[in-house]
Design goal:
2 copies of one chain form a homodimer.
Chain A lengths: L4 E10 L3 H16 L3 E7 L4 H7 L5 H8 L3 E6 L9 H13 L4 E7 L15 E7 L3 E10 L7 E9 H16 L4 E6 L5 H15 L6 E6 H10 L6 E4 L1 H14 L7 E5 L7 E5 L16 H13 L3 H18 L6 H11 L1
The structure holds 3-isopropylmalic acid (IPM) (2 copies).
Cofactor (chains A, B): Mn(2+); Mg(2+)
InterPro entries (chains A, B): ICDH/IPMDH, IsoPropMal-DH-like_dom, LeuB_actb
Main location (chains A, B): cytoplasm
């Protein structure tokens, strides 16, 4: 008789290739956790199709049901037929904010077998700890005299000591398990209010972690180092917008966002955390069955690790590493990559 | 008897390597314009040394004198002994804003002879047209309960149709002289107020330029393309902060910010425009005489072009191109590079 605990997983495939890669992530989850945990899945029909059909983006009852689950697997959100911002703000960011997923965790690793666009990439293995619930993503802003020559549009970045301190502490704790170095990235020479607060909180929390060194880089300089010397990074700690920008550049540097997963984590466990590839819905290749499901599969490893199943997560990571090392440069369909990775789990 | 007009140039060497590269830029200016224009120079003792000596950052009388000049050559601003933001906001940004330098023009070109960190860089030759007087750089923001656990720090991005339209029109005009393509970069799926205004104004102004095509990219996706396919760009049009970030990444991709110059342009000529390398004061190598003056020299070519001396500017550009092609990979001092470039002008 099985004594494994059963977890409820909300599955939101979303749009475009999100629908193609999410089933592969689920299959990997199942196989890796076999014998240690069981899952029941609740599928949510959210995203562009749903919105175009009945105008719903994230109905209250869906959000309540999602709140009752143990974790969320998300594919991708975004569709060219829909005005920019509607699904992003109404669905993806609404989830991150409503579920207080204040840690946006984004590892970047150059796998053996992947060709980086850099001539001399070196060993790349760092994690971006991006704040997930503040900054310019708050939706505070507006416009007056819209559409006239006198229009003024504002965007307000709201940053709280409460919100910054919890992500700073998380970054230092993570660094303790890694190479013990934190790099704060901001633009404190221009954004003096927010930047100064981030720096003061890093300095203060840093004192609790005497074994962890920390330094500071401006966002602009960081984009240079990601290209010229990405090996220098261990844990990059930054705000919501800078984290968005840096992780895409980092994805490019490690050979494509197809290898980059992310966790939107409520580290205090009041709400479920959400795991997703960092790539988007990729309308240009959607429906062709050629999207690389690796990032989605890696996000299911992050989900397992979050639930405490380190060994099951490591199985997926090892399977992905072996798959890429051997077959990374061969052209395969979504199904083929899924089959090859699954065979190794 | 010479009939050349004399121009008054304000020279602000500033900090660190700014002091070492600016004289080289001046020498190049002199030589290239010989016979077509004359210059008188007014040196301004502004930057870290001055601030540490007497607390002055940009005294009103200096600003008034600068307003009376025809153009400004700036070295670099920033010093590790001074809290981030003081000189940047008080001197560099104060100049850009007071002189209404609303076009921040930043060409990126991969010169023959320069090794890009990219394995397959392709032909890189684009210009970033960065808005220079709005957005998050306005200094609108503040903090409450500073230093307490309840601190809230804000940064406000202010964007006006007036400010956006003039830079959009400039970008389209520039594209007409180039490959006739404009890429708007923003984050309109999150920053919906400002992003939507930028897009509407681009669409409207674009109609005046039927020969110029335009498309849109999110800032995060743009950081990917700068690494994976920088050749796709012609004119990149973006806001103040995104322009800051992209041009540093672009500098890295073309082999280092040592080859990247910029113009802070008041295109309506009410105030002098200002030309500077995009690199900073580089405290780590300052005082050693090894800073590469190429970007500063290229900024004097931009100054000449701005004043209408296209042929003199082209002389500098050609000299730099020839110098890099032949000697780009040899280790030289600031003086040696200066001497080599000057010999070719
Ligand atoms: C789709 C978009 C709102 C989102 C973001 O900006 O956070 C995406 O780019 C990401 O990085 O997850
Ligand atoms: C020094 C700093 C204020 C400045 C900026 O952010 O504009 C610099 O990075 C630049 O790009 O010219």
């Amino acid at each position: 008789m099985s004594t494994t605990k059963t977890y409820r997983i909300a599955v939101i495939p979303g749009d475009g290739i999100g629908k193609e890669v999410t089933p592969v992530a689920q299959a990997a989850l199942e196989k890796a956790a076999d014998g240690v945990a069981s899952f029941t899945y609740e599928n949510f029909d959210l995203g562009a199709e749903r919105y175009l059909r009945d105008g719903a983006i994230l109905p209250g009852e869906d959000l309540e049901r999602i709140k009752g689950t143990d974790a969320i697997l998300l594919g991708a959100v975004g569709d060219p037929r829909i005005k920019a911002g509607i699904l992003e703000r109404g669905l993806l960011l609404k989830l991150r904010f409503s579920l207080d997923q204040y840690i946006n965790l984004r590892p970047s690793k150059l796998y053996r077998g992947v060709t980086s666009p850099l001539a001399n990439p070196g060993d790349i293995d760092f994690v971006v700890v991006r704040e997930g619930t503040e900054g310019l993503y708050c939706g505070a802003g507006g416009a007056v005299r819209r559409g006239t020559p006198n229009e003024v549009a504002t965007e307000v970045s709201i940053n709280t000591a409460f919100g910054v301190e919890r992500v700073v502490r998380y970054a230092f704790q993570l660094a303790m398990k890694r190479k013990k170095h934190v790099t704060l990235v901001h633009k404190k020479n221009v954004l003096v209010n927010a930047g100064d607060m981030w720096q003061r909180i890093v300095d203060k929390v840093g004192e609790e972690f005497p074994q962890v060194t920390h330094d500071y880089l401006h966002i602009d300089a960081t984009t240079i180092f990601l290209v010229s010397n990405p090996s220098r990074f261990d844990v990059i700690l930054t705000d919501n917008l800078f984290g968005d920008i840096l992780t895409d550049e980092a994805g490019a540097v490690v050979g494509g966002v197809g290898y980059s997963a992310s966790g939107n984590i409520n580290a205090s466990n009041e709400y479920p955390s959400m795991f997703e590839p960092i790539h988007g819905s990729a309308p240009d290749i959607a429906g062709k069955g050629i999207a690389n499901p690796t990032a989605a599969v890696l996000s299911s490893a992050m989900l397992l690790r979050h639930l405490g199943f380190d060994e099951a997560a490591a199985k997926i990571d090892r399977a992905v590493e072996a798959d890429i090392a051997e077959l990374g440069s061969t052209k395969r369909t979504t199904e083929e990559v899924g089959r090859d990775i699954l065979a190794r789990i």
